[in-house]
Design a protein that fits this description.
The protein has 12 helices and 40 strands. With 567 residues, it is α/β, with parallel strands linked by helices.
Length: 567
């Protein structure tokens, strides 16, 4: 069915498979399903709206509202929300039900829920069972890590994102069981790898793309179990060592030039239409061991998911979700709602929960509507407790009210029921959230679409004397870890932490000229976009659905033709 977005006016398709899954996702009250309306925004617009509720990596100092202690938080100090440090938030010293209130049928649901959000305490950061990891978020079981996001079971990893079982890595993302890697993304079981993407079992190499089992290689693409290669050309060990020395990988200037040459070389090489491995009937990218996943990105061990990102480890029958995994089933329009979650609709950061509607920041909770901050509760509405029958009857009345209430938007309107939370209810400015990474907007554009915006702190501008970084790490002095540096792109201040300096010295790596946020942005830009384009295999001419747009690479191959090229 063809529809028109109420926000942008753009046309989009609601497929028959979407409608079928929506029927399964409909909530049940008194034994009858309450139908969900068809989406009123395009998949990309729905994703942008959800992501605007997720601040992963913008950290601030503020005081815990309960103890007064200075804490690190994703909520900037001027935010009106009540913020508790982790220990206090998880304690029994406060009761989320104490903030409960009756539903007022003279006002909209979103208006009342917004008031509750500003009153109920929020957790400063989400990280558990970690040691010396104050600056980590949405993470667990880490040790001695700094600025590590959405990661678990790592040690001595810094400025990295979505890392699992890694050690001594800096500026990496989407890596598994990697050690001593730098500026590496989407790679597994690699050691001493640098400036590389989509690699497995590679070591002692730099600037590799889509390589497996390679060692001592530089600027290579699509190699399998090779050694001593540069730009895919085979050398003897002696000649390789001599050429590597001449490339001067410890020089910032030399690395920038070599990187540009490598990217140009990569664009001339055949590329598989998408990164999809051991999967059946899937479209998207970065998909492994999945089945029947449509328009999904970063999916692993997932089944029957649609329009999902970070659907992994038992994520089944979910639609329009971000970071929903670890045995998550039948969730719709949710973000960060997983860990044995079942049938949750329109939720933000709800773990081990079931049958929730329009809930936020809840744990081990079931059958609740419009609640925030609950733990081990059921049959609650706006944080007020009810009996089961009273709960279901009142929810049905609220849903009917929502069907008649206008959904706030600057360019159009819909009804409340069946829509995710409006942008105005986000606790963050659009430019603080993941939405800005994948759907960048200017300040005026964000305001026009109803999103908030956070202005930069005056104190966050560059302060201190100019410090000139040496071209080679061997010329760096100890005082560089005490200096305030200025990002060459954004002019924002940043520092080289002592453990980072030790890493660079041990690996002969030139000091970075960009701040951590800019380095993260550049890594995300290098990954395949969350879009699908119709392309044709350069060899057999079969049509494929690829995240690689026309003009990005000269030769796109379908899966069978790509595999044949290694035979």
């Amino acid at each position: 069915m063809k529809k028109q977005s109420w926000l942008s006016g753009n046309a989009f398709q609601v497929l028959a498979e979407d409608e079928a899954l929506l029927l399964r996702l409909a909530p049940v009250f008194f034994g009858r399903k309450e139908a969900l309306p068809l989406p009123s925004l395009s998949p990309a617009e729905r994703a942008r709206r959800r992501l605007a509720f997720r601040n992963e990596r913008k950290f601030y100092h503020r005081n815990c509202a309960r103890t007064g202690r200075k804490i690190i938080s994703v909520y900037s100090p001027e935010k009106p929300h009540v913020v508790y440090e982790q220990k206090e938030w998880w304690s029994d010293a406060w009761d989320p039900l104490g903030y409960g209130r009756e539903f007022d049928f003279s006002r909209s649901f979103f208006e009342q829920f917004g008031e509750l959000l500003r009153l109920v305490p929020r957790i400063a950061l989400v990280h558990r069972n970690s040691e010396n990891c104050d600056y980590t978020n949405i993470s667990a079981d880490n040790k001695d890590c700094y600025i590590l996001i959405e990661s678990s079971n790592n040690r001595d990893c810094h400025y990295s994102y979505w890392m699992q079982l890694c050690e001594d890595c800096i500026d990496c993302c989407f890596c598994h069981r990697c050690t001593r890697c730098y500026e590496v993304s989407d790679s597994t079981q690699c050691w001493n790898l640098r400036y590389s993407r989509n690699c497995t079992d590679c070591r002692d190499s730099a600037m590799l793309l889509d390589c497996i089992g390679c060692a001592d290689c530089i600027a290579c693409c699509n190699l399998r179990r090779k050694r001593f290669c540069i730009f895919n050309e085979q050398f003897s060990e002696k000649a390789y060592r001599e050429k590597k020395e001449a490339l001067a990988l410890g020089s910032w200037a030399a690395v920038q030039k070599l990187s540009a040459d490598a990217e140009e070389f990569f664009r001339s090489q055949p590329r598989k239409y998408s990164t999809i491995l051991n999967s059946e009937d899937c479209t998207g990218c970065y998909i492994v061991d999945a089945k029947d996943c449509f328009h999904c990105f970063h999916a692993q061990e997932a089944r029957d998911c649609r329009y999902g990102v970070h659907v992994w480890r038992g994520s089944n029958d979910n639609m329009d979700v971000d970071t929903v995994g670890r045995e998550a089933e039948l969730n719709y329009e949710c973000i960060n709602t997983g860990i044995s979650s079942f049938h949750n609709l329109f939720c933000v950061r709800c773990w081990t929960c079931s049958e929730l509607l329009y809930c936020d920041n809840c744990d081990y909770t079931q059958n609740c509507f419009g609640c925030t901050g609950l733990r081990h509760q059921q049959y609650c509405i706006l944080n007020r407790q009810y009996q089961k029958e009273d709960y279901e009857a009142l929810v049905l009345k609220i849903i009917q009210k929502m069907k008649d209430a206008p959904y706030p938007g600057s360019r159009g309107s819909a009804v409340e029921w069946g829509e995710f939370f409006p942008a105005q209810l986000s606790c963050f400015g659009y430019n603080e959230t993941v939405a800005q990474e994948y759907y960048p907007l200017e300040r005026s554009e964000a305001h026009e679409l109803g999103f908030r915006w956070r202005e930069d702190d005056p104190g966050a501008q560059y302060q201190g004397a100019e410090y000139s970084l040496p071209d080679k790490i061997g010329d760096a002095l100890d005082d560089v870890s005490k200096a305030i540096l200025r990002c060459a792109v954004t002019s924002k201040p940043y520092k080289i932490i002592p453990q980072e300096l030790c890493f660079y010295r041990a690996g002969g790596i030139a000091l970075p000229r960009f701040c951590p946020d800019e380095r993260h942005r550049l890594r995300m830009v290098q990954r395949s976009p969350r879009e699908i384009f119709r392309r044709f295999c350069a060899q057999c001419h079969a049509q494929v659905l690829s995240p690689l747009a026309a003009g990005s690479y000269s030769q796109i191959l379908c899966g069978p033709c790509y595999e044949k090229s290694f035979a």
